[in-house]
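Worked example

This section walks through a single chain of length 410. The input is the sequence exactly as stored; nothing has been trimmed or padded.
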Amino acid sequence: MANDRGTDGPDPQPEAGGADGTGEGAEPSRAASGPAPGDIAAEGALEAAISRAPAVVESWPGWPGMRVSLGVLALVAGAAALSVGQALFLPVLLAILLALLLTPAVDFLDRLRLPRWLGALLVVAALLAALAAAATQLAAPTQRWLNPKSPEWRKLEFRIREVKRPLETIQGAQERVADIAESSGERGKPKPKEVVVERRDIFQTLDETSVLLAGALSTIVLLYFLLASGDLFLRKLIRVLPRLTDKKKAVGIARTIQVEIGHYFLIIAAINLGLGIVTAGVMALLGMPSAAFWGALVAVLNFVPYVGPAASLVLLTAGAFVSLDGWGQILMVPLSFLVLTVIEGQFVQPILIGHRLRLNVVVTFLAVLSWGWLWGLGGVVVAIPVLVALKICADHIESLSALGEFISRD
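Given that input, the structure is written out below as tokens.
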């Protein structure tokens, strides 16, 4: 039996310590004699694996470049999606911005015990009525000043021809010199002129009009649903969050963002309205006809950053060129508007809005260019509100703090 046990394998108890006590001195004797060859091989393999691991990570130079490449691809894909989906995304974004602006009015009616759906309906109806009244009042002056067949435009063309006449004389002299320099055989032959006739299909016009009407209707309907739903999405977000601290933090951030964005839009609307009123008064003092029209035009265009004030300056200069006599009176109109614009941009806005929401000029200009390239005039209109909303969100969400610092002007 002992032989069988010996052939089957060593007895575990003698291996652990042995009955005769010789097992307890096995470890010192092994230490004295040195490590076993198997241990040396294992340690060598472990050291080799450890030494190879950092080399593999450090020798992957494509990892930082891959992150940048993925970011660029995501940005390009997002821009392409926004460009293709303009008919969908632009009405949604306009409805969200208008909802942030009009939510305080609906909340006020809600505190008066009026059903929220009815309050939202009244607010949307009041907005549409105000837009319709403004369009009705400004229709006649707009037709008068912006119609190319109106007497004002013909007078403007006559004034422009008077200014261009000396330039045309110089240009004619240059053409005569060029004719003399040509060969005698080519001098008498009239140069053929290429005439391009542009034909605009009526179906294309109807298609563009239908897209515009569909976008406006979608904006109005979505605006009503957003105002009527109130805090529905916020309540759903609170239900999804697992911890009580996360729920409280989400509520605080959402309330702050909503209040600050709403206040910002209200202040901008009030500033533009005030600029329009002051502009109308100054134009009336300078003798410009239809002063109320010019004030309303300035107030509306001032919502479009950079492009709006520039367009107002050009239109006011053209109107003064047609309506007033004498270069002194004509130049007073654009100079007065420039003074008002500088006061509004450099003094009124910083005082009412504060330095915390002032945006980086370079980032603002790039945002206007980018959104204008994507969505045209609609993109230019929503560029600054979107950037302000992003800035406010970044100020209250820790993970976006770096983005908020980049957008901030200070």
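What to look for: The chain is about 80% helix and 0% strand.
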